[in-house]
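Table S2 (text version). Query chain:
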Amino acid sequence: MTPQQFWKRISACRADGGNLAASLQTASRTEASAFQREWDRQLAPLKNERLWWQAYLASHRFKRFTFAQFTTWIILQGQPFHARALKPPRKAVTLPIESPALLQAIQPAVIAEMPPMFPAAPRTTARGKHTPPEKRRPIPAAVAKQQDKLVFDAIMAAAFVRRTYQSTIARFWPADDLPKEGLRPENLEIARALADSGFLAGHVYAGRFLIGGSDCKRKREQGLRQYRLAAEGGLVEAQYELGGLLQDEEFGPPDWKQSIHWLTIAADHGWPDALNDLGSAYFKGTGVPQSYERAIELYVRAAAKGCVTAMRNLGYQHRRGQGVPTSPEIAFGWFLKAARRGDAEAANNVGVSYEQGTGTAANPKLARSWYRRAANLGATHAPNNLGQCHLRGVGGPVSFAKARDCFEKGAAAGHADCMNSLGTMLRAGQGVEKDLVQAADLFLRAAKQGYTHAEYNYGLMLFSGQAVDKDQVEAVRWYRKAAEKGHPQSQCNLGHAYLKGTGVSKDEAAAVSWFRNGAEQGHALSKINLGDCYAKGVGVTKNHEEAVRLFRETVGAHPIALENLADCHEHGHGVPKDLAEAARLYRQAAEKGWASGQKNYARVLENGLGVPTDPASAIEWYAKASAQGDEEASQALTRLKTANR
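Corresponding structure-token output:
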């Protein structure tokens, strides 16, 4: 039997919907033996990946056998070709290749109870005589039906592997398995052979190897050409991938026109990720005119096809009110839908919603639970959020040990927010042994990643010289990085640096500008400092009324605002002079533990300004201010004690 006759017999039988084993029952002994020999000969070379693909390519050239059918043969190869094979094998069928991912892809058809594909009835009687074909026992209909079902399952599984790009690439040659030191020539050769045989995914395989396995610019350009061939051939997966690669700056300036072209084609074919990426392009206005409405439309289509990233993006759009009316409830619904499908970032957003009560009723316990789930899925900010729950007792008891564990795991994974949180714990000695050196190192590592809070914290340590060499110039540089990103405390500190000329040339106008930036964000200290500049005419035209307004806005946030407002009432700056009101405000500042407020309230009591004179109480308040290191209070305390002897 020639190979052509071999494959023809197989394809004819399958095309007719018959059972090959049953078909062989009617064959002559010579024909059955010839078929058996050809079967063994065809399967004998299948000892590694390369020979497996060569065998497939050989069968493909006969135009008789599909990829899925051939995969089925390989799955079921190795079964005994005799009557005893009707009994289920004790061990699961194994593949003759080294790809566990492929085995997983066709797992539904690879089960321990799988009977052989081509069982044969006994060809001899008990006495060793040959049984004529017409007297051979037919295969039971139930067995034949079971065989056909299993074969069909295997074919469908293999066909799924072929037509689904993510499956083919990730299961045959996962991206993580691509060698970093260079390409495996045999795999590239196989991919090109597949492409030459008309299998478009072969171009994708070749492109993946060329792009992912080498840093060589020339090979990457070759990889793009392979992708382009597959895309032009109509392979939707390749069109989508090519659209994404053309945006990658590693290949040079992004070609947005071509990228949008291929993404649009893939999106028109209904590829979910292409719809989502095209929506993102419209959202950002990259390569196309910006249109939130068009982005929403594409996200909805992608989400309807099960794209969890699009569901999450719809959540963001409804939360921000971009292209749609702001609706925290709808946003929460999309986040929850994506999270239930395993999206890590969406799960973290569900946790945030439950913690803050946005879009749903606040539920700290559920917030902690979703943060834990998101952290297990690999969400970037979930370990820090979960650690903060343990640190602050949100949704459960306070546990410094569990908080530290969360932060350490996140820091080990390179998450800047966890590095900053762990550094904050170590700096304060909060539930852990105080370690300023390690805290500074963590702040620096996070700051180098551009994490705003860490930039501020590291600048703070540099400015004061905590565990690092004092360097106010470098501190101001880090303050500026954070301030330019809108960090209000950094803006306030940078304003102070300009006001005093520490770490930077003195510039009162710049100080006022940075104080104003912080004040516009509602930062209390920035408002107080800006009010002080207005009160004194520093860097801005003196304006007591504006100063009073700013002080009144912050009286509940910081005792210095109470003291400054008391000073305005004492001297009649911006408000009518009122010593009694001034004394009341000084007392409030003093009772909050503010040393300067204690000193001024003692002065009011000593001199009877708006209150009856009370030297004993004055001594008491001077003593409290002196205990906090106020030199003027210490001198006044000594003077008053001497006078009252």
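Notes on Table S2: Confidence is low (pLDDT under 50) at residues 14-21, 43-131, 146-183. The two ends are 128 Å apart (CA to CA).
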